[in-house]
Amino acid sequence: MAAATRAAATAAGARQVTRRNFAEALRDLAAHVEACDYVAIAAQKTGAPTGWRRALPVDTPETAYLKAKLAAESFQPLHFAVCPFRIDDAAPSSSTLVAYPYNFHLFPRDELQLGMPSYSFSCQSSYLSSMAHRGFDFNMCIYDGISYLSRVQESLARQNIFIPHIRQLSPSPSTSIADSVFVSRIKSGIDYWQKGLKKTSKKADGSLVSTLRELILGGETYGSRPNIRIDVCSDRQVQLVLEAVNHISDDLVPLVVPDKAGAARSVRVIFTSSMEDKNHLLMDIKRSEDEHNLKFRGFREVIDLLSTSQKPIISYSCLNDFTMIHSKFVAPLPPNLHEFMCSLRMVFSNIIDISHMWREIGPLRKAKNIQAALSYIQRQYFVPMDVEVPQQDGNNSVTKSGENVLRIMKLFAKLSNLLKISPNGQSHYGEKCHTVEEYSYIFYPDCKAEESEDAKCSNESETTRPVRTDNVVFLWGFRETSVKELRSRLASLHHAFSKDFELKLLDKSCSALIFNSSDTAIELLRAINSQSPSLNNFFSEGLKAAGFDVYRKICRLGLWDSDLAEALECVSSESSTTMLSGNGTDEIYWNTSLMLDLNEYLEC
Amino acid sequence: MQSSRRILLRLRAPTETLLSRMLSSSPSYGGGGGGVAVKQVTRGNLADALEELRARVRDAAFVGIDLEMSGVTSAPWRDTFEFDRADVRYLKLRDSAERFAALQLGVCPFRWDPAKSSFVAHPHNFFIFPHNELLNDCSSHEFLCQTTSIDFLANYQFDFNTCFREGIYYLSRTQEEEALQKLYKLHHNDISAYPNTCEEEEDTPLKSAADILFTERMKIKFNEWRNSIVGNQRVDGHGSENIKFADQFQTVFFKMRPAVMLDGFTSHQLNLIRQVLRKRFRDLVYVCTFCEDGLSEKRVVYTDTNDDKILLMKDVREDLLKSREARVKSAVGIRHVIDLLASERKLIVGHSCFLDILQVHSKFVGPLPSSMEEFALSINKVFPHIADTRHLLSVNEAIQYRMRKKSKSLSSAFSLLCPELHAPDEKSFTLSPVKIEVESDETVLSCFTSGAKHEAGYDAFMTGCVFVQLCDYLGIKFEHLSPLENLATNINLKKHINLLAPCWNSGTVVDLSTGTERPHPGYKRRYPVTVYDNVVLIWGFQSKVRPKDIKDCICKVFGPASLTSVFPIDSTSVLVQFSKRESVDDFMDLKATLDCTDSAISALHPLSTILEGGQTRAAKYDTYRDICGSSVSKFSFADQAEAVCSTSNAEFKSKESNAADGYGAYESALDGTVPSTVEQAEGTKSGSKNQGENDFSLQDILDALQDGKELSGKRMRNA
């Protein structure tokens, strides 16, 4: 608990970022990321999957990914904590953690009126309620949260929204007579206008006269600068106008104005009074483009920044967080894990799941969450560490992800001390150190629905054994009952149940049986499919069973809306004949939080 | 309400904080609160507010209501269209009511005061939050938010913090029944299984030395405590023999028996204690009770005899039952308000309130039935009289004349019909015929804030005001209204009661007392009346194909007069209405045939524009209904349709047969004649169901990633 309060105290120093101060915060963050070795991230979403939709011990990496995909697509991140940090270990006895925590508040506001980034999102009331209880400011988040577009959404938006821009003059092919007539007409038009401008600038007219002149000459002002609009009807004409302008004078800046469909509608020629003034104008245009880009990308600028910095990114529930990041800020999630991994690698080269790191230390393996791991290290190891948060913010709003990111960072610092990891693989004293890359891209899907705040280590037996998916049989159709009762009931129903097997309830309507040999499981399923008379009692009890393929299929089809039993029933009844084809068996890690070495998924 | 919610208004700058709304009552504020005091009700003051409201509703002539929801449509294609068939429209509205949460309930009783000859209104604004720890069913805890709706509410300074922190919970009638039933069953089991429960519990193995030591220690301590009680019946905790143990148990009394509070033990330790008691002390009973705040208190109670023990256990069980019942009752929360309105059988007035009523049914009564008729009958039992001001606006010619060229939204009607309430400072308006006052007679004003547009309480008030003025147009004289007379049975109003438009563009009116839906005569249709048997649903074509292209290419095949209309659903799906019913089957057959052939001829066929990409599907109108009624929720209609069809069993099988039939018809299709042998081609080519999950192609994604990479490369070079 001490760790928690201290984390809360330091979280108060985090910088709160909304759309009001986003631009400046982004600049500062860029500098801090540059100066640091690692970046810790944590996100707070509007909910997490419940029931059998969360990762279960029977899940293969593939099905775990599909479940993470579902969560990423339905829930909305409201808060994103980013914390670049570095470990200064000048003295071997004590090291200092220098951290720059930022708390970004997000809301998927449709800034561009295009129905993006998200039409709707799911909320879990228990999540919102506990967030509210902890003092999360929903008003700030919804009124002033930063919006964003994913990379794919941005490219779609850019097909729909266009702003005036400067176009480079491309070398033009031979000009026809018609072209040269057009150019000379444009030239003389601009010349005339320019002369008029120079003339009028000498004598001070009344405002009425200048307005009239503007009307007659077709000039308008761009900011304070006079300009003229030349209507065009094709890209070719744009080129010709640009050419003409180029020929006349250096003082003129042509700006191509597109219409709603993106085709050039007119060219606006802006008159600048000097070279200095021209540079000013170009900078103004650049700035307005940047602002526009910020409006398009919004918070995604932060993700792009992390991506380009190539710093190792430390996170806790990586599969959940990065499917979320991918779907909200990069592109819609691909249908399978392999494609996801390829795609994610292109964005982030180095992601470290903190729970993989702590599993490297034997006794810590039991730790169920960050706090458990942190308090265990606190008790069992002596790792002195000072935390320094140089930037302070008066705002005292503490959020869960804000706390989490600091915990992740602290835990990482201690673990990297224990595991002798340094950013460059060399310690200050020339010892050989591990690099953090060795831990990269190994994810543990979060098996629990919600992380409890208690810092206890689990008392469960810790036998991790790989089980082939062949050995798994899903059983449903029993009414509410306990594992013990069910087991004793089953024993009398078929001889397969007299063999040794493990039984685990997956949700209130379905359980998984793990047989020790795949023969028993296959035999049972075959008997069920052929409706063998030996199973009469089994059927008359209303029991149903199916193999892993059916489960894999419901995950693939995305039948998430119903109970597991309903979904299994739906799929198994329609394709009972193809069930035993047994296409490809995988291993699952039964009885433990499963591990995904995602590097494996990149090799093919 | 619906139409105005749909449009994103940005009348107020978002910079204005909630505080400024509370302090200021300036009418310039987005339509103006006009300084109307609205009582804000949250979890804290619900009980008091409910008592007060009970009296107000009893005296009221009618009650205005309004609801603010977290969204209206879960996907663009779920929007209600004018050409929707009534059952489809109901399914779409039902989907909305089920998925989205109600965040605010506005209730405003209007009482006629003959002395002042004016109405007196009491606007209430209830914050709702759909969270209930009583229900362990996870699915009921999830609700959807539509981004634009949330943003819209934010623009009107909706206080989300109050809503999520202080919002009132609720249980629907069905949920309450279930909870109580479960509770009685639990209680019953407890009693019947009583004598054996203690023995049946499994022993916790003593795994560590710490456990063993703890167990021994507890044995000693309980033994001492028990001896001290048995030894001298006068136990006050100050006996001299207790002094040597500093951490001696403090004796308290529980149901007239000596007891010990067990504080600060972990659940594992509590288990060990129970085990010790079970094995060693037959006269000490472990009792767990629940306090009002949901926390549990554990005690060890001393009982004299075995009979006494049984008596105690029975007592405790009954207490437990009572406290659980009380918890269920308190969990009913905001539904008490609905129950109150229902039991008083008052006239309920809303503006464009069909969706509101659906929400009320789904959240506070029970799951929504599958058809409009059943829904109407069900809600009619709860609220026998409902009036919709939006409907009333269209029944009287004088009002229609005044409202011409005006939006039918609540605020526009309000500003027109009640100008002095809308903007009290401007005197140029003629006064409305019926006077309305707002009463906030409480001395404590802390829970009152000045009403603002799109706050449910204030909207309910506005609705009531509009209703009062409309009644005047309908020739209802409130002066002659006796306090006991039900306004709903008034001869001038009666024929307009319980008539509601299901949505703004349906062009129909539903009679809630019978469940029938009929066209509204005053509605101007944009589309011709649809013949649903002639309609084909097409989805999954490429988004570059416009509805006009589809029309053109179908006309090329079936003749220029074959099509009546093409309705776009979204960018990759349309409903096509043929002029003849036979064309539907012909089209389906032709499509199935073209799907199966893979030759140059099929590529040159005029329909290839639609079929390009190989993902195009077609089905009859009933499939459209099934897709809309499905609980699956995808953003694009094509994805939704694929998801629904892939799970539906019949579809799956018909696909197989279609593929075979398609080949048989292959020859004739190429001759240009339409085969008549194929019965139905609702299905699609098999084997490609899993694609089309994403709105974007793989190429799009790769391109975007490439962009990102180039960007990163550039930045690296700059650095």
UniProtKB/TrEMBL annotation, chain A:
Pfam families: CAF1. InterPro entries: CAF1_poly(A)_ribonucleases, RNase_CAF1, RNaseH-like_sf, RNaseH_sf. It comes from the Eukaryota. Its cofactor is a divalent metal cation. GO terms for molecular function: 3'-5'-RNA exonuclease activity; RNA binding. GO terms for biological process: plant organ morphogenesis. Belongs to the CAF1 family. PANTHER family: POLY A -SPECIFIC RIBONUCLEASE/TARGET OF EGR1, MEMBER 1 (PTHR15092), POLY(A)-SPECIFIC RIBONUCLEASE PARN-LIKE (PTHR15092:SF42). This is Uncharacterized protein. It comes from Leersia perrieri. The lineage of its organism: Eukaryota, Viridiplantae, Streptophyta, Embryophyta, Tracheophyta.
TrEMBL record, chain B:
Its cofactor is a divalent metal cation. It comes from the Eukaryota. Belongs to the CAF1 family. This is Uncharacterized protein. Residues 674-697 are annotated as: Disordered. One of its GO terms (molecular function) is 3'-5'-RNA exonuclease activity.
